[in-house]
């Protein structure tokens, strides 16, 4: 596995942002996002832009301590929720809160690290993630779902 450096990351962000801009322009601002039909392309572009600005602030201020995160993102972390459903044709996800077989709750950073297999899902002391419901099902998802970037 190739280790990323800052320049590779910067180029990847620029390239992915260019692809998003091209796709957004082709779809139009009011088109529904296929994986989150409640969102429009405008909603998605605004969300990605806010996230990029937030990450730029983290880098600029050299923030590594989660307790020092900018308040805007800390608020998003508390309110954000996604419902993921396995169907015969693949997984779907959308921003929602509803009854589920298993629910993962925790800081966005810990959830991301657990979902990309960089932290153990069930080590609450290390992750501050709460697993409510079928823990084996959550682990099954992690063990059988590919994480791909790029």
Summarize the model shown:
The protein has 150 residues and is an alpha+beta fold. Helix content is 49%, strand content 18%. The strands form 3 sheets. It has a two-stranded antiparallel sheet with strand order 1-2. A two-stranded antiparallel sheet has the order 3-4. Strands 5-6 form a two-stranded antiparallel ribbon.
Give a written overview of the molecule.
The chain has helices at 6-27, 41-61, 71-79, 108-115, 124-127, 135-144; strands at 32-33, 36-40, 82-87, 90-95, 102-105, 130-133. The chain is an alpha+beta fold and 150 residues long. A two-stranded antiparallel sheet has the order 1-2. It has a two-stranded antiparallel sheet with strand order 3-4. A two-stranded antiparallel ribbon has the order 5-6. A hairpin with a 2-residue loop joins strand 3 (82-87) and strand 4 (90-95). The radius of gyration is 17 Å and the shape is globular. The model is unreliable at 73-79 (pLDDT under 50).
Write the layout of secondary structure elements.
Elements: H1 6-27, E1 32-33, E2 36-40, H2 41-61, H3 71-79, E3 82-87, E4 90-95, E5 102-105, H4 108-115, H5 124-127, E6 130-133, H6 135-144
Antiparallel strand pairs: 1-2, 3-4, 5-6
Give the overall pLDDT as a whole number: 78
What is the number of independent domains? 2
Distance between the termini: 14 Å
List SSEs in N-to-C order.
HEEHHEEEHHEH
Counting DSSP H or I runs of 4 or more residues, the number of helices is 6
The computed structural class is alpha+beta
DSSP E strands, number: 6
Largest sheet: 2 strands, antiparallel
The rounded Rg comes to: 17 Å
For the largest sheet, list the strands in their spatial order: 1-2
Strand content: 15-25%
């Amino acid at each position: 596995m190739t280790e990323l450096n800052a320049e590779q990351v910067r180029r990847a962000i620029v390239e992915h942002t260019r692809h998003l801009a091209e796709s957004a322009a082709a779809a139009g601002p009011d088109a529904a996002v296929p994986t989150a039909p409640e969102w429009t392309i405008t909603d998605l572009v605004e969300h990605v832009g806010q996230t990029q600005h937030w990450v730029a602030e983290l880098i600029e201020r050299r923030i590594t301590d989660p307790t020092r995160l900018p308040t805007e993102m800390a608020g998003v972390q508390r309110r954000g929720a996604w419902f993921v459903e396995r169907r015969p044709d693949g997984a779907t996800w959308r921003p929602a809160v509803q009854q589920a077989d298993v629910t993962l709750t925790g800081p966005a950073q810990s959830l991301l690290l657990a979902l990309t297999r960089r932290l153990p899902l069930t080590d609450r002391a290390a992750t501050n993630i709460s697993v409510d419901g079928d823990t084996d099902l959550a682990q099954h998802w992690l063990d059988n779902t590919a994480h791909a970037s790029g």
